[in-house]
Known about the structure:
By secondary structure, the protein is an alpha+beta fold. It is built from 3 helices and 6 strands, in the order αββαββββα. The mean pLDDT is about 90. It comes from Sphingosinicella microcystinivorans.
Amino acid sequence: MAVFDANIAVAQKMYDIVRAGDFSKLDTIVTEDFEIVEADGLPFGGASRGRHALRELLERIIPILRPSDIKLKSITANENEVVGLLDLIFADGDGEFIMPVAEYFEIRDGHISRIVPYFFDTPGLTQFIARRG
């Protein structure tokens, strides 16, 4: 398998684990010094580090976000980076809110070492979360 394909596969595995809700498996696909950096403008913004950081962050924010769907639109890679483009779909009594997201991954030795998600409308997402309660 080409390195590009292997890097895409590890990112895809992360998305599959998140969709399945079995966050404990995330610890097996990240490095010991893993880091995720969320936008400061979000209620869960800031950096989290360590082997369990991704699992712990998702266990904390999924109940806040409560997406009704995650649609992976495209994924591309090079020797040590992956970018995934996705839509987070949210629903409430006022309809649907779609948040486009670009997620930047750094890959080292077949494991994810860093993720930086770029939410295209952090104020809109923050307002939606506050409105939904």
